[in-house]
Amino acid sequence: MSVLDNFESWKDFLGDRLHQAEGQGMNQNTISEIAYEIGGYLANQVDAKNDQEAVLRDLWNAASKDEQHAIANIMVKMVQNDGTGR
Question: What's the superkingdom here (predicted)?
Answer without folding.
Answer: Bacteria
